[in-house]
Amino acid sequence: MTLKKVYLALMAFLLMVAFSPPRYVATFENLVYDQFIYYTAPNEPDPRIVIVGIDQKSLDQYGRWPWPRDVMASLVAKLSGFGVKVTVMDVVFSSKADTEVTELLDNLDSEMAKKGIKENSPEFYGEFQKLKKSFARDEVLARAMATAGNVVTGFVFHGKEEEEYSKERDDRFLPIIKPFRIKLIQRSADNRTANIRSDVYGVNPNIPIIQNAGATTGFMNAAPDADGVIRFHPIIKNYKGDLYPALALSAANLYLNAVGDTRVVFSGDTLGGVTVGGRFMPLNEFGFIFIRYLGADSTFTVTSAADVMNKPVDDTVFKEKLKGKIAIIGATATQLYDLRSSPLGHTAGVEIQANVISNLLTGSAISKAGWQKIYDVVLVFIIGTFLYYILQRVSIFVGIIVFIALFAGLLAFNFWMFASLSLWLNSVTPALTILLCYITITVSHYLEEQESRRYIKDAFGRYLSPTVINRLIENPDLLKLGGQRKIMTAFFSDVAGFTSISEQLNPTELVTLLNEYLSEMTNIILSLEGTVDKYEGDAIIAFWGAPMDIKNHAELCVEAAVKMQRKLVEMRADWRKTGQLELFVRMGINTGEMVVGNMGSKQRMDYTMMGDSVNLAARLEGVNKYYGTYTMISEFTHELVKDKFLCLELDSVRVEGKKKAIRLYEVIESKEKSTDAQRKLTDGFSTALSAFRKREFEQAKILFQALDGQAPEKSTAIKLYLSRTDELIKTPPSPDWDHTYNMAK
Question: Which has the closest alpha carbon to 400: 435, 451, 446?
């Protein structure tokens, strides 16, 4: 499957994830939210909010929780006396207090009335009424709340899973909270019934006397995520078709003197938000805000309930601490902890309420825009398209930089939007797009590179050294169809008398012998960074200097020829021992400008060389026979290797079609391994050749004759010059004679 098809499938998947994120995406998104909260939390309390804590000190003084209603009444009255503007009850009084005692006293009162004690013993009956009244603690609390006129009570909605809910309870409890519903609902003209989806199936309110005594009320329900962390909070809920405010919303609006002005706004069938003191607060479609926590546990100012009860109302220092504030009464003692989890750790439930109230007052709650889903889809498409066109056109290093920059830029932008504009943009799906698109394209490039490597190894593994192959793998462009002009060294070799040898062997013996010879010679070529162009029967064609540039290509080629001749000496010794035919090989080498590259078609190509310099190397291989030599090089190669190899100058010849003469040399041995006899031979031949070229033909003849006895292996070349001297002595050359002969065909 091509990259394009894989990428299209990936993009389709990512676009679906962006449009409808699965749970695992939401889970990771929540973790990003937690980090954003951690780094943006000011860790400073809202000075308008104070938590009145039911702490250990308070429990030690007033007994175990819950306290009697008259104690709570005293606390409410004291807070009012200190000038608290709003008192928030983070507690529900869902049942009457001292029920058994009050029922007993009511029964006694009824019996006294029947027996006429009220009339007969009015003094006793009056004392009894005082006793009875002292146990009416619900009324005491209700009177204190009504007198204060600033108390926000809390109630709890429950879901379908709570079996205590019943029709009878609903009929009883609904009238208690219905007066506190939000009455101002702004809907579009085309959708008068717009509402939010309800997850509420029942209610657990305060008893009527307390519920009605409060200035306002609100539900206390929290909304933890699947991992138990409270990141968002419901601000309004739909119950039986009516919308009810959260405790925090009621508290904020009471503080801002806007309880009756609370208005919920719908746009079409979508919830827009709610007003808080006249300021619009956006909500999501479920009526939630995302909480911007001010800090970890105990960020808000906490005042012990015992201190509130013990201090006189004329204590100016303490009064200054509470005057004009929102006081939230809630449990802070360890054993009473209404323990909740926030993005910043565990905290008391009353701290959650304090954070939500602060968010509503400041308008700093985090929101998600209604266009978020469309934004995510468009962003994923843009990122995917951008990476597809960029990553295929840059190096791996630049691709990594693009990946890091895009990833970091996304998080930085989303963090800025979160911190500055209180807008939570999704990070996980775009980040997942960046990651998966980068991996897909990078892996595709890797697989293509591996395929290219395999191709190069398969195509050239038999002809190039591992070093050269590795260089080609690093730069595959060298193998594109086409050629280039380069200064290189070409090598041609051929087995002397191969036709005769092949006639003496059956096909199996011939192939075995030839494979053994070609394998050994090829190993030497490859070990010295040569490139095998091709095999033509017993012939080997190779070159040095391509596909990779090699500065000392001439030296390496000549060194390979010398090593091949040495290896042939060893192989002939082994062949003699086994009675096999021996192989002698002629080699021709030339250095010059050549055209090298992939020649052929797109379907099939050969990496080869061509040009006059190549043809000369091929001619030199054949000319060896004329001089009785086995390794011949041109003057162009000799000029580059003369310092490292002992060479014997053979002749000055004119190639057909060329005017300028070329000097020919035989490679004897490397200077490092050459013998005295070899050096003496080359010196003697050079002296004789010099005399010949100076027209001292008699002297040249004597010198060549002397060499003939000393070096029988050079008899062919010596006899050639003896024949030339005899002819020139007999018929002296013209004055313009330049001692140059035409190259033998």
Answer: 435
